[in-house]
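Class, study these two lines:
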Amino acid sequence: MKLDKFYKDTLILTVSNLATGILRFVFSIILSNKLGAEGLGLYSLIMPLYDLFACATCGGIIVAVSRSSAILAGNDDYSNIHRLIRTTILFELFWSIFISIPIFFNANSIALYFIKDSRTVYSIEMICPALIFIALSSVFKGYFYGISKAKIPAYIDIVEKAIRIAVVVGIVNIFFLNNMVQTISAVYAALTFGELISLLMLYAAYIIYKSKYTQFSSASDSQSQLLFNTLTVSVPLCINGFLTSLLNTASTLIVPRRLVFAGFTYTTALSLIGKFTGMAFNITFFPMVVIMSMSTVLVPDISKSLNKKDYYSMEQRISQVIKLSFYIGISTSIISLCIPENLGKLFYGRNDLGIYIITSSLCAPITYAAASTYSILSGLEKQTKILLNSFLVSIEEIILLYILTGIPSINIYGYTIALLITSATSYFLNMYEINKVCSIRFYFDDIFLDMIFAILLFLFLGILNNILPSSLFIFKSVSIIILGFALYMLLVVPVKHSLFK
């Protein structure tokens, strides 16, 4: 049977994202070795700030350009597509420069008054050029997703991550950087260099593909109209991303202070954050790359179905994506519960991550499913609802983190409780809005079978973990990981399909 184009594009992006995810994972391992838990915690305080600034410069642009390009490409209107790209590039260039310059000259104030750690000044300065590069790259990525050439930005992301790792390792070893501040600054310098390389490759690919399509246009839209159409989609998403990132940044900066309030020293608090969010979360949420791949392809796919008023296909696609997200989350939780210590030792060479991996994995099923619903709303042109729901959930997260991480008996585990509650809130709020447009229903028999299969898989992997000798540590761990996903995805889905067809 011919593979659905949606899943073909998803598979391409998944393979690519797995490759970049592995590189990112390797990168985090290198950082943990170079920086230690405290340094990784300090690094983790800066990254949300970078995400915040990136949202301010280009939030929503990829989705807006991909959606507009998909609709225009469906009409073979490539002349207007390229006019759209030129206009959006110029806008993003001026806008990103406008945002980056004040950040650069106020890096010291940001470090002292927001992060409250003067060691982050140089890193903040380093990320400013990257904000310009990533804004321009977003336009080209949206173009390739819109014309169903997702593999182009996918391959470029792999190259960019590999270059970033090579640059970091090279700088640290060549210049013998042993100081934590210098090393973290070098890491963010490498991030900026990687974004520049990514932009140059995307531009080269755009020039090549631009010449392959006939410059036909049934009616030339003005540049102002094309930009307006793009901004009406991107601005609500940008505001949503900015507010969400702002609140997430606030959450990140709150946690070390609340842990200190709970009785930990600042150094210990950073170490706890490094282990929990910088290591355990990287393990339990690594499979999220599959969800992100589906989400990237999903937005233009839903937009096309909505434009054609093909509601049946749209409902089928949405239902499939939510179920697959949930299945991947269940598999992740089961694997993490079965071999938490093995995972910590396998990826980070540490024996103290088991409890963090167990607690963070409890959120995986609902968090994975909730993540996919945001892309569904985006495809359904529900930007305002995304903004409102994200804002409510982010406020909820701040309140929960402030309360929970300040309780000595809960401390860092407040992250898990907060994530579990906010993910459930996101899922139900988003599903309520989705069901206003199309009917998505999950039945008790279906859910009951999911739970039965999950229990059976947990028992099987537990037995396998006890049978295989510890002397075969790597083989044992990798086998359980592969079987955990393969058995649930390749056996459960066909069985349920045969029962409910």
